[in-house]
Design brief:
With 376 residues, this protein is of the alpha+beta class. It contains seven helices and 22 strands.
Length: 376
């Protein structure tokens, strides 16, 4: 027997079917909610970034105007401020600075700041670098130059500068231009813990690898490159500003500024020198202070230098006398001075090197043909 279509008149079953049909439509609308929120967040962040950028532009313009009022003129060629969405990149096709006592210029400069870490800036600086200070002029370039600045409330926590193969020349400081080159240069500075707030002290670390200075090479009779390292503290460094060099040095001197040398190390071929002490400026603006010296291989250096001036025989004689002087126990070299150092040769103590009243003395002996002239 033929049967008709089966009908399901159960209301509950119909409701369940309707709910099953409606549920996918609601869940599809929910899928779009995260994208809507993300688009809204992106819109808000875009508006916020452009507001931050506009504020940065105003602060840069205000700082440049304040510097110009103070007699310091900065020129950032083709200035641009980009970096959307998470950073600000200030770019200058070239950067120039001028004031009454001198001027300098640089190649392309980029300063980068992440918007979520505004106190940490990274710099990339291109050459050439040209500077003029009175009769002194200098030109330099490099393969790569980078720096960083870590700010802190009321000051900074660290400043660093790293350069690969800087090289250049200086004219006006000697009858002939002084040329130089360095394979790698690093310098770092930070507030001295526990002393920055009271003494304005700043710790400085400098390292220079394979320094070539033909003027010194000719004097020393050795073309071997030198490695330099310096650990020092600049007292009253917080008193230094960006005014004229002579004015800033005088303000620093009057504030009691000094340079405490924890260690100065110079290695050139077989000769090594270490120095510790403190330096400053006297009322006549000349270098003053004392350095305690330790050395190895200085006898051969003295022989070469004196031999060039007075002849090989006298050079060898004076070099031998220096060797005996370095072996003299009366200068009080501590036991550790005689211990072998990295080069395998023990460092021996020299008499202290003193700078006072325009003269430089090594122990009781005045260094001839050296006059300490005012620095400004």
């Amino acid at each position: 027997m033929a049967q008709g279509p089966v009908r399901n008149d159960d209301p509950a079953s119909g409701a369940a079917t309707g709910a099953a049909t409606a549920k996918p439509a609601g869940s599809r609308r929910g899928l779009f909610l995260p994208y809507i929120l993300l688009a809204a967040l992106a819109l808000v962040w875009t508006v916020a970034w452009f507001m931050i950028r506009a504020r940065a532009e105003r602060e840069i313009d205000g700082w440049l105007a304040a510097e110009a009022t103070a007699g310091r003129q900065w020129t950032c060629a083709d200035r641009s401020l980009t970096g959307f969405p998470f950073r600000l990149e200030l770019r200058c096709a070239s950067l120039a600075f001028a004031r009454s006592d001198g001027r300098f210029s640089l190649g392309p400069v980029t300063a980068l700041v992440q918007v979520y870490a505004p106190r940490h800036a990274i710099f990339e600086i291109g050459g050439p670098f040209k500077v003029q200070q009175g009769e002194l002029t200098a030109d330099a370039t490099w393969d790569k130059l980078e720096g960083s600045f870590h700010g802190a409330s009321g000051g900074f926590s660290r400043v660093s500068l790293v350069a690969d193969r800087p090289r250049g020349s200086v004219t006006g400081a000697a009858p002939e231009p002084v040329t130089f080159s360095v394979r790698h240069l690093e310098t770092h500075a930070r507030p001295t813990p526990g002393r920055f707030e009271t003494d304005g002290a700043v710790d400085v670390n400098l390292s220079a690898k394979e320094v070539a200075l033909p003027l010194i090479d000719a004097l020393a009779g050795s073309g071997a490159p030198a490695d330099l390292a310096l650990d020092a503290t600049i007292n009253r460094a917080a008193s230094l500003r960006t005014g004229r060099l002579d004015q800033e040095l005088e303000r620093w001197r009057q504030a009691g500024g000094s340079l405490d040398v924890a260690l100065l190390s110079v290695v050139k071929g077989d000769s090594r020198l270490q120095a510790r002490g403190s330096l400053g400026l006297d009322e006549a603006h000349r270098l003053m202070g004392k350095l305690d010296l330790r050395t190895a291989g200085l006898e051969s250096l003295v022989t070469q230098v004196v031999g060039r001036q007075l002849g090989a025989d006298k050079g060898a004689l004076i070099g031998g006398l220096v060797g005996k002087l370095l072996g003299n126990k009366s200068f009080g070299a501590p036991a550790e001075d005689a211990a072998p150092q990295a080069g395998g040769t023990p460092l021996k103590a020299l008499p202290p090197l003193k700078f006072a009243e325009g003269r430089m003395t090594l122990g009781p002996f005045v260094v001839p043909n050296v006059a300490l002239t005012p620095l400004y």
